[in-house]
Design goal:
Largest sheet: 8 strands, mixed
Structural class: alpha+beta
Number of helices: 16
Number of strands: 15
Helix content: 40-55%
Strand order of the largest sheet: 5-6-9-1-10-11-12-13
Distance between the termini: 65 Å
Bound molecules: adenosine-5'-diphosphate, magnesium ion
């Protein structure tokens, strides 16, 4: 990767990254109001008086958000704080009608935790989570509809977010990407967040500083506004180069908030970094502190699904998969369900994993289609692998049939019939074909018997040719050996 070599050239600069990830929680209604929390909708149609900051309106905590936060906390192996509190973070912005954001500053609902990330070299590493807190989202200012006016859409105002803050435990763009991927996967397994980055349900701020090996952490910048993992990687690469250039030049990195400009592929200064005290945080007097009883945590824990790490371990143990293959298969719940539905008596789980990863996901990737739109569903793939396992078709043919299944959506059974591909397993029929082949190639037969062993392959090839590749190769070998020995 370009950055890695650049870092190496520049006297062992090391990047240090900590992420702040905002996950929009899946709930019917907003954090403190009964308005719909769903994405989109007619402009300003999901807004009630609380969201619009009308005088005298009081926030009422949505209990569903607390349960979602607990789920995420458990999914991050984190402490669930039985006492937490809401604070006001004061600032003016046109899309924040209250004049403050209700957040959790001093007492977040989720304390320290840890997440395992899977790196491309097959290694796994733990990344510490510092905390996660509940807060309201802001609305959206619209600047591109009129040459003199800006508009505001408050639909998103008050939608529940969980901000997950990592420790600065990441040392490359790839590791940062791996953390986002892993968090997204966990959140989706939990049904806590849909993880849709383009729609903004998962947003990530990148804190990055550079240091020379062994030194203390340097001054960091915080980059916002990336809406895909690819852009996060690009922003990190750009920002690390920018900081190295400054530092090599003897200049200082200024602690500030920067914006990622995707069109130009660069980060740009947005505002100098504000400190916590600038926001005049104070406990929100309209809201009581949150106390969570241990029984409630237990109840949520009892309902948790099997999470990616546990599933990955089970796939390794039960099916003998490599850690890497298992990680690919558990990356989403949908994939894992697909894989397990392909498995059946008589099908080798490792072979099935190979088919799902290499053939199916490979083909879908080429067509840029999600698994949910695959023309071949799990049961269709299972049927194909059963034909293969029973020897009805060869491995080579299975690949051809699969390609046709992908393009036509027809089941394996139909295609095998249509294409006349059934493997020839009839010993008598194969024996007859071999007889014909030997008759037709007397010269080669004599040469073989005279010691030219290599001609064995020639005879196999002729038999396969005669049967359009349908003859069971094992059986051909066996019968051919007998025939060549005898007479
Ligand atoms: P603040 O609360 O002022 O936003 P924090 O110290 O709480 O700042 O850190 C916010 C995020 O920045 C965390 O994800 C943390 O891991 C990361 N971070 C803190 N210091 C550094 C640094 N020097 N370099 C890179 N990341 C950092
Ligand atoms: Mg911050």
């Amino acid at each position: 990767m370009a950055t890695a070599s650049l870092v190496a050239q520049n006297n062992d600069w090391e990047m240090v990254i900590g992420l702040e990830i905002h996950a929009q929680l899946i709930t019917q209604t907003k954090l403190f109001s009964g308005a719909s929390a769903s994405y989109g909708g007619e402009v300003n149609s999901h807004v009630n008086f609380v969201d619009a900051g009308m005088p005298g309106m009081l926030p009422v905590l949505n209990q569903a958000c607390i349960d979602q936060a607990i789920r995420v906390g458990l999914g991050l192996n984190a402490e669930i704080n039985t006492y937490s509190r809401f604070d006001r973070k004061n600032y003016f912005y046109p899309d924040l009608p209250q004049g403050y954001q209700i957040s959790q500053f001093t007492y977040p609902i989720i304390g320290p935790g840890a997440v395992m990330i899977d790196l491309p070299d097959g290694q796994s590493r733990e990344v510490r989570i510092r905390r996660a807190h509940l807060e309201q989202d802001a609305g959206k200012s619209i600047h591109d509809q009129h040459d003199r006016y800006s508009f505001v859409d408050l639909n998103r105002c008050g939608v529940p977010l969980l901000e997950i803050v990592s420790e600065p435990d990441l040392f490359s763009a790839q590791q940062a990407a791996a953390l986002v991927q892993k968090l997204r996967s966990i959140l989706r397994y939990l049904d806590a967040c849909d993880g849709n980055m383009e729609q903004g349900s998962l947003r990530c701020d990148v804190n990055l500083s550079m240091r020379r090996a062994g030194e203390e952490m340097g001054t960091r910048t915080e980059t916002k506004n990336m809406n895909s993992i690819r852009q996060i990687v690009a922003a990190i690469e750009h920002e690390s180069r920018r900081q190295i250039a400054l530092l090599e030049n003897g200049e200082a990195v200024i602690q500030e908030t920067r914006l990622w400009d995707a069109a130009r592929g660069e980060t740009r200064s947005m505002r100098s970094k504000e400190d916590a005290h600038d926001y005049r945080y104070f406990p929100d007097p309209d809201l009581l502190a949150v106390r969570i009883k241990p029984a409630r945590i237990d109840a949520v824990r009892a309902e948790l699904p099997e999470l990616p790490d546990a599933k990955q371990q089970r796939f390794c143990d039960a099916f003998g998969l490599s850690s890497y293959d298992a990680a690919v298969l558990v990356a989403s719940r949908e994939r894992a369900v697909f894989y397990e539905s392909v498995l059946a008596e008589g099908i080798d789980p490792k072979l099935a994993a190979n088919w799902v990863i290499t053939e199916l996901l490979g083909a879908l990737n080429k067509q840029e289609r999600p698994l949910s739109e695959s023309p071949v569903d799990a049961l269709m793939l299972r049927e194909l692998l059963e034909f293969l396992a029973k020897g009805v078709i060869s491995g080579r043919m299975a690949k051809d049939v699969f390609a046709q299944m992908m393009s036509s959506g027809k089941p394996a059974k139909t295609l095998i019939k249509e294409l006349g591909l059934e493997q020839l397993n009839d010993r008598d029929e194969i024996t007859a074909v071999i007889g014909q082949v030997l008759q037709a190639h007397r010269e080669q037969l004599a040469a073989y018997r005279g010691g030219k062993d290599k001609l064995f392959g020639f005879f196999v090839g002729q038999v396969m040719k005669q049967t359009q590749g349908r003859a069971n190769p094992g059986l051909v070998n066996e019968v051919l050996k007998e025939k060549l020995k005898g007479h």
